[in-house]
Amino acid sequence: MVSMVQRQGDVIKELEAVFKDRLFTEPHILSLYSHDASSEVGVKPMAVIQPVSVDEVVKIVKLAIDYGFKIIPVGSSTSLSGNATPKLENTVIVSLERMNSIIEISDIDWYARVQPGIKDDELNLELMSYGLQWPVDPASSKTATVGGVISNGGGGMRGAKYGPASHWILGLEAVIGTGDVIRIGCRTVKCREGYNLVQTFIGSEGTLGIITEATLRLAPLPESFVGLMARFRDAESLVNAVIRVKRDKLWPMVTEFIDYMIAQVLGLEPMYYLWIGIDTYSGSEQQILSKLNNDVSLSGGEIIDKAFTWQEFSKILEPRRMLYSATLKAAFNDYGTDAFVAFEDIAVPTSKLPEAVREIQTLGQKYNVKMVIGGHIGDGNLHPTVWARRSDKDEMERIMKFFEDVGKLAIRLNGTVSAEHGIGVQKKGLLREAISSRNDGNSDYVINLMKNIKRVFDPYGIFNPGKIFD
Amino acid sequence: MVSMVQRQGDVIKELEAVFKDRLFTEPHILSLYSHDASSEVGVKPMAVIQPVSVDEVVKIVKLAIDYGFKIIPVGSSTSLSGNATPKLENTVIVSLERMNSIIEISDIDWYARVQPGIKDDELNLELMSYGLQWPVDPASSKTATVGGVISNGGGGMRGAKYGPASHWILGLEAVIGTGDVIRIGCRTVKCREGYNLVQTFIGSEGTLGIITEATLRLAPLPESFVGLMARFRDAESLVNAVIRVKRDKLWPMVTEFIDYMIAQVLGLEPMYYLWIGIDTYSGSEQQILSKLNNDVSLSGGEIIDKAFTWQEFSKILEPRRMLYSATLKAAFNDYGTDAFVAFEDIAVPTSKLPEAVREIQTLGQKYNVKMVIGGHIGDGNLHPTVWARRSDKDEMERIMKFFEDVGKLAIRLNGTVSAEHGIGVQKKGLLREAISSRNDGNSDYVINLMKNIKRVFDPYGIFNPGKIFD
C-alpha cells in the first residue's frame, strides 16, 4: 500500500511538472469529477488535468503506460449512463474543456474542424452565421461538448431524419493507448480508405483513446420550416399522430414529446405534448401544415403553437429540452439530495410505440415508482425516467427492477436497450441481454469481438476501465 | 505439389457432398469468376459455390478452416478496384446470388430485412410500391447486389444528401472467420450497444466475413421533386454551377455529371452535362427551379430537360448511369478485348473541384491518355477513367502513372483516393500514401490497427486475401 501511495506521489509530481496550474488534486475539485450527470456513484480520481494540445495528451498517455494509471477522457460529463464516472482511484480525469476552438469552417465544403471541448450549442451558434448546422443535437446541447457527443455516439433532437452522430463525423485525430496519434477519416462525405476506424471511435465511450480533433460534416439550415407544438389527453393518441405523419410520408427533422407530469413541473397543463418540425423549401409550408393539422386532429390532439423558421421552432421546443432538469427538479422536490434518478433510453420500431408506452406505464404502476416519460418519439426513442430515495432500499430495488424490465421490454419489441446514452456502467447487464437475445442466447462471442477491438487500440487497458463490457 | 492437388481433390469432394449442383468447377465457369468489373487480372478459383442458407455458409467457412482454403464472398462482382478478383488459386468463390429474398419490409418502421444477393434496383422497385426507398444508389444498381454494396461501402447517386451506404444499414447477420454467426446492430436508427461492429463490416470488402442478412434503413420517396439536366461548354462552368447551388443552400439529393467524350459515345452533343435533383414537398417547386435556373445560366449553362417526380428524373438521368458501359464501349472501340480500363474514384472538397478538374485534364494531356470523366460531383466524387492497350507496355505505363498522379492530386487537395470503389488490389499503394500524408509520413500504425481488426474477425486469414492492406 505504501509503495502504491509513493508511486502515486511520483505520478502527481511528474504531471505537475508538465501541467502546473492545469493539474488539480484538491479534494473538492476531485469530487466534482467523481461522477457525471447520471446518479451513478463514483470514486474520487487521483487528479484532473486540462491539457491544451495533442502533445500534452500524448504525454499523459505515455505517463499512464509507464505508471499504470487509468484515464477517463471527459467533456462536460453529461453522461446519463455513468459513462464518465470513475470507478477506480488510480484514475486521472483528462478534461478536454480547454481544447475548445473551432479550427476551420468551410461554408462551401460543408465541414468544420473543431477541438473536442467546444460545446454543441457554441458550435451551432457560430455555424448559424454561415447558414449551416451540425445537426447532432442532444437535449443537453448547451452543456455537452462535441467530443463527448462523438464518444457517446449521441443522437438527439434532429436524429429522426438526419441520423445520429455517426452520420456527421468525417474524420478524427485521437491519441490511442500506445501513445500514438492517429488521424483517420477524410474531409469528404465519401471516404473508403480501408476499415472505418472513425466509426469504431464513435460511441466507444472514451474506452479506445482520447479524441483531440474532429472534422464534422455540416448541413445547410433549412430554407423554410414548419413546426408545431400540440397536446393530447393520453400517450396513445400522441403516438398515433406520429404514426399518421409517417404514413403520410412526411419526414420530420424533429419529433419530440413529454408527458403530463413533466408538463406539470414546467407549469404547463398536465397533458402529453408533441413537437413536430419539418425542414423544407419555401412554398410548401401550407400544404405540410394542413397534413399535420389533419394528423393531429384525427388523433384527438390540439395544435397550440406553430413556427415557420428553425429559430422560432427552437424557442417553442424549449420545454422539451427541460426534460432532464425538470425531472431532476421533481426528484429533488420529493427527496432532496437523497434522490437517485435512473434515466432509461430505449428505442423501438415506430409500430411498437403504442405497445411500448402502454407497457412502460403498466410497469410503472406494477413497481409503484415515480416516473416521467419523454423522448425522441420520431425515431422510437423513449426516455422513461424514475427516481427513488437512495436510503430507501425497497424503493431503490423497485426502480432498478423497473429499469431492467423496461430494457427487457425493448428487447422483446425488437428494439434496443441503448439508443443514445450508451452503456457506461448502468447498462452492462442489459447490453449482454440484448446481444444474447439476437445470438441464440449467447452474448460471449460478440462481446469478445468488442474486447479484442478494445485491445487493438488500448493494449494496456488504460482508457475508461469498467465500462461497456469491462 | 501432388499432396496439395490431392488435398484440393478432397476439399472439392467434401463441398460436392453438401452443395451438389450448386458447386461449380468447370473451367469456363471458373473463368467467369476469375475477375470482376475492373480490368484487374485474376486467377481461376478452385470452385464456385452458391449457398442458399446461413447454415451452408457456416459449413463452407468451417471447411475453409479445416482445409486452409481461402474464400471470396461475391454478389455480382461489379467492383471497379479489383475487390472481388481472386489472386490465389486455392480460393473458393462464395456467390450469394441465390440468397436474394426480401424477408420483411416495414412501411411504418421504415426498415427492410433482406438477403445479401438481392439486386439494388430489385429492392428499390419493390420499395416503390410502399412509397419508400433505400437511397444507396451506385450507377451499377441494376446489377449490384445489396450485399456487395454493403461490403464495398458504396455511395452512389443519392449520396450527396443522403450519405453513403453506412448511413442506411442498421443491422447485419454475418459468418466470421471462426465459423460463428454474429447478429449485430438493431432495427432502429439509434443503436448504441457497445462498439459499432456493423460499421466495421461496411466497406470491409469481404475481408472480415460473409454477410448473410442485412437490416436496411429506408426513407420515404420524395413527395415532390425538382430535377434538371443542363449542359455546359466546359467543365469549369459546370463546377461553378454546382458551387452556386451549394452557396444558395439548396441541398440536392442528386448532383451528377459526364464529360463531352462520354456524351459523344452516348449520341449527345459533345458538351459537359449536369444533373441536379432536389427532393422536396409540393408547393416549393417553382422557387427551387428558378434558383437552379439562375445558378445554371449565371454559370454559362443551358437547361435542356426538367423533371418533377423522382421517377421522371430517373429517366432523364439514364445517360449518367451509362458512364461505365459507355466508357467500356469507347475502350473496346479503340482496342477490342486488348483494352485495359482503369477507373479512378477520388473525392475532394467541393471548393477544390475547379482545381481538381483542371489538373486532371492537364494530367491527361501530360500522359497523353484516352480519358473520360464523370461522377457524383455534388459530393466532390470524380471518376476520371482511362484506357490503354494491354499489350502496349508504354501506354499501360502512362495510364498507370496517370492513375497514381490523380490519386496524389486528391491527397494534395485534402481529398481521398477512394470515395466509393474501395481499395481492392488497385489502390493499395495509394491507400498507404493517403494515410501517410495525414500521419506525419507514416502509414504503418494506422494500417496495423486495420490488420489487427482483421485478425479479430478472421484469425485464420480466410477471407479475400491480398486486398486493402494485405
Automatic annotation (TrEMBL), chains A, B:
SUPFAM superfamilies attached to this UniProt entry: FAD-binding/transporter-associated domain-like (SSF56176), FAD-linked oxidases, C-terminal domain (SSF55103)
Cofactor dependency: FAD
Residues in FAD-binding PCMH-type domain copies: 41-221
Any GO molecular function: FAD binding
Domain of life: Archaea
Keyword entries, A-Z: FAD, Flavoprotein, Oxidoreductase
Protein name per UniProt: D-lactate dehydrogenase (Cytochrome)
Source organism: Vulcanisaeta moutnovskia (strain 768-28)
